[in-house]
């Protein structure tokens, strides 16, 4: 029998069916490890970007050495750290692999079930934040990508499974720092600082953030971890540029964070009253960071005032590149570069999210959330 006969019309259809069957089995096999973990979606700025900016024409990028020097591959991935970032460590806690950047060509098929990372370094709550970085994925675009992701997911698993995956997912959103650092305080007499007093600017920011959080709920998010901004004035970049002695945290940026975080907390409380307690969980990043910035030695750090990788005063000027001065032991530093924590600091931050008291994270900590949600999903299965 010639092979030509084997691939007649009927057998071609059969062969296609077999191929499809194999495809489905392969998909299920691939899906197994991630299927036990809940999906994870990430939105926001460089603190949580897993590499979307690698695919864009922008200066806000971390895809060359020595970024990633302590990542398992020892390669720069676009994460703004020496190793794992905050979303990676949360993924670990979920028992999941790290989320892929939404723009990564690898994000298709079973990988979609893990979730996705939509964050883009340089963005803020406002569209005019980070314009100097040229081409970045602003938050409204990140939300549109989330819709696009859900079309793809429905194509893969059907509408009702897709809905379940999104509703059951953990969501992280980190925004706000750049609206101060890369907008209001970027240059003296910035447009926004001439338009708004700081308290009015913060009220405006929070009212815009509120719309973003509501939109996430409309798009199916039901567990949203919202992080405020850290003590921005204590970053090595700000100590180098704005502090008189290179020691004292910049008062304007500290005031900005102190105004912003409590108001964001109020919005989270209000939205929880509307959508259900614990739909949004507010992490007080200011408190979380401030502990080890004010007493680094208590956490085994040598310094919180100097970046590990950089140049100039506080090693906090400019970008971290192969030409920079790099510290010998990354684990002794809170800051990897002028703005971003080391992996070791990121691990402490996430452990506070996991088990901190309500001063750090409210109304529930993440370990309580994960335990509650696991119990609820077991009840559905049984
Ligand atoms: C930002 O831009 C998007 C898309 O152009 C728009 O829908 C949104 O309202 C803008 N946000 C603000 C705060 O102006
Ligand atoms: C946070 O998590 C820890 C460990 O799971 C738990 O013992 C503690 O009660 C939680 N705290 C709050 C305020 O929920």
Describe it.
The protein has 382 residues and is α/β, with parallel strands linked by helices. It has two domains: 1-36; 39-381, 3-Layer(aba) Sandwich (Rossmann fold). The chain has helices at residues 3-6, 9-36, 86-94, 139-157, 159-167, 177-184, 191-195, 198-218, 236-241, 251-275, 285-294, 343-355, 366-381, and strands spanning 40-44, 115-117, 170-174, 224-227, 280-283, 303-307, 309-310, 325-326, 333-335, 361-362. A six-stranded mixed β-sheet has the order 2-1-3-4-5-10, with helices on one face. Strand 1, helix 3 (86-94) and strand 2 (115-117) form a beta-alpha-beta unit. The model is unreliable at 1-35 (pLDDT under 50). Bound molecules: 2-acetamido-2-deoxy-beta-D-glucopyranose (NAG) (2 copies).
Question: What's the structural blueprint in terms of helices and strands?
Answer:
Blueprint: H1 3-6, H2 9-36, E1 40-44, H3 86-94, E2 115-117, H4 139-157, H5 159-167, E3 170-174, H6 177-184, H7 191-195, H8 198-218, E4 224-227, H9 236-241, H10 251-275, E5 280-283, H11 285-294, E6 303-307, E7 309-310, E8 325-326, E9 333-335, H12 343-355, E10 361-362, H13 366-381
Parallel strand pairs: 1-2, 1-3, 3-4, 4-5, 6-9
Antiparallel strand pairs: 5-10, 7-8
Helix pairs in contact: 4-5, 8-10
The chain binds 2-acetamido-2-deoxy-beta-D-glucopyranose (2 copies).
One 2-acetamido-2-deoxy-beta-D-glucopyranose (NAG) binds next to loops.
């Amino acid at each position: 029998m010639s092979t030509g006969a084997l691939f007649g019309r009927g057998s071609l259809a059969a062969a296609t069916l077999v191929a499809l069957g194999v495809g489905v089995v392969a998909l299920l096999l691939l899906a197994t490890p991630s299927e036990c973990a809940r999906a994870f979606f990430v939105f926001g700025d460089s603190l949580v970007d897993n590499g979307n900016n690698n695919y864009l024409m922008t200066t806000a990028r971390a895809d060359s050495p020595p970024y990633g020097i302590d990542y398992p591959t020892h390669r720069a991935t676009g994460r703004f750290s020496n190793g794992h970032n905050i979303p990676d460590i949360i993924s670990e806690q979920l028992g999941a692999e790290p989320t892929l950047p939404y723009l990564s060509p690898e994000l298709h098929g079973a990988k979609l079930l893990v979730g996705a990372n939509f964050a883009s370094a340089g963005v803020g709550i406002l569209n005019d934040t980070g314009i100097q970085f040229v081409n970045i994925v602003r938050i409204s675009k990140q939300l549109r990508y989330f819709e696009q992701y859900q079309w793809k997911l429905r194509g893969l698993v059907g509408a009702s499974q897709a809905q379940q995956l999104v509703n059951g997912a953990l969501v992280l959103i980190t925004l706000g720092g750049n609206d101060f650092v890369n907008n209001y305080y970027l240059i003296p007499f910035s447009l926004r600082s001439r338009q708004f007093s700081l308290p009015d600017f913060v009220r405006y920011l929070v009212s815009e953030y509120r719309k973003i959080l509501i939109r996430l709920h409309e798009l199916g998010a039901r567990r949203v971890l919202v992080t405020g901004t850290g003590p921005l004035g204590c970053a090595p970049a700000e100590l180098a540029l704005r502090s008189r002695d290179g020691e004292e945290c910049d008062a304007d940026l500290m005031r900005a964070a102190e105004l912003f975080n409590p108001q964001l907390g109020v919005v989270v409380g209000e939205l929880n009253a509307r959508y259900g307690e614990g739909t949004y969980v507010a992490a007080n990043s200011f408190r979380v960071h401030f502990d080890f910035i004010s007493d680094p030695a208590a956490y085994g750090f040598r310094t919180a005032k100097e970046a590990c990788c950089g140049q100039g005063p506080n090693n906090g000027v400019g970008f971290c590149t192969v030409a920079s001065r790099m510290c010998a032991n990354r684990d002794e530093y809170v800051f990897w570069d002028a703005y971003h924590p080391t992996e070791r600091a990121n691990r402490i931050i996430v452990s506070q999210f996991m088990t901190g008291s309500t001063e750090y994270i409210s109304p529930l900590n993440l370990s309580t959330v994960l335990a509650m949600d696991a119990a609820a999903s077991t009840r559905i299965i049984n």
